[in-house]
Amino acid sequence: MKLQVEQTALAEGARWVARHIPPSAADPAALAVLLTADGETLTVAYSSAEVAASVAIDAHVIAAGRAAVSGKVFADILGALPPLQVELTGDDNGVDMIAGSNTFRLGLLDTNSYPSLPPMPAISGQAPGDLFATAVANVAPAVDYQTAAMPELGGIRIRPDGDRLQLMATDRYRVAVQTIPWQPNGDAVPALLPGRALTDVAKAAGGADSVDLALTAGTAGVHVDGRTSISRLLPVDKFPNADAAFPKEYTGVVTCDVDELAETVRRIGLLLEGEQAIELAISGDHMTIQAMRNTKATGKARIACRLEGPDTFDIAFNPRYLLDGLGPIDDEVAINLTTYSKPALIHAAVNNPSYQYLVVPVRDPAKAAS
């Protein structure tokens, strides 16, 4: 194997593939990427029982061939090289990487024991690249990567519905939902994809015109700009029935400038420690934001708002959860309210918002006792 390739493109592709690799494994082959030089392309690929990822990069291939090397080491070295043409040369003992005066040699891992890459499933449809990337980023904060007892909470559900595609994530304390248009052109079923892998592949979609999606019963695939990610699905039937958590009626709605609210929450949040909450005391045309049950320091701020429904309304939130919900919204935000102890719905103050964020408030023990 011998080829020449631009450092910038190869480093970016190798770094993206390396994000699919686990931190450690008993078998070194499980941490390897397979380099395949053929025609005018270098393919960098990783495969495991859970996920597979590959990226095809334009290259000047002098001699075709393939080699398996440590994926993270390969990506780290490429990222540290200057933006010059990189020459890769492989033999029976290793792979040489040369860029200017920089020379590295990587040992080989066994290509015979390297798992075969699964084929991309049949394409179910296409979604606009920028909208897909934004939707995944918007729902990702509600993904729970920590609950080992419920691995399905670590997924993002993609559900096709005609010419619309709904993405949803929940950690049981909040539900984030975004709906985007797409063009179906094949069979598609609701699919629960590992959140971390989907977030990584979506980052590459922002600059692409479209994303190819394969939503099948066993695996799902995402293809964009020469990058392919194939994931074994999480059991979608075990995903919480988060749709039922949305209240059917609300007693009131408060509307305000989203930037002003977010900046104030961050400022007052400086007083909070541990699991302390931030309280919104809403009255007519203003909202007072203060730290809740903080004995060490006090602080509050007041911003303009519009409250429709009740004359006053008090509710408290985990500040990080609240800020996560405000992040994707521009201009004015609307918060639909029921009671101080039931979920509130955050969305843009427009008709039929494509993004919705349901969050469970923090209950004040004093109010709960009364």
TrEMBL record:
Reading the lineage from the top rank, the first entry is: Bacteria
Q: What class of enzyme is it?
A: transferase
Q: Return the similarity comment.
A: Belongs to the beta sliding clamp family.
Q: Where is the DNA polymerase III beta sliding clamp N-terminal domain?
A: 1-118
- Localisation: Cytoplasm
Q: Name the Gene3D superfamilies for this protein.
A: DNA Polymerase III, subunit A, domain 2
Q: Which gene encodes it?
A: dnaN
Keywords of the record, alphabetical order, are: Cytoplasm, DNA replication, DNA-binding, DNA-directed DNA polymerase, Nucleotidyltransferase, Transferase
Name by which UniProt lists this protein? DNA polymerase III subunit beta
Q: The organism's lineage? A: Bacteria, Bacillati, Actinomycetota, Actinomycetes, Kitasatosporales
Q: Name the InterPro entries on file.
A: DNA_clamp_sf (IPR046938), DNA_polIII_beta (IPR001001), DNA_polIII_beta_C (IPR022635), DNA_polIII_beta_cen (IPR022637), DNA_polIII_beta_N (IPR022634)
| Organism the protein comes from | Streptomyces bugieae
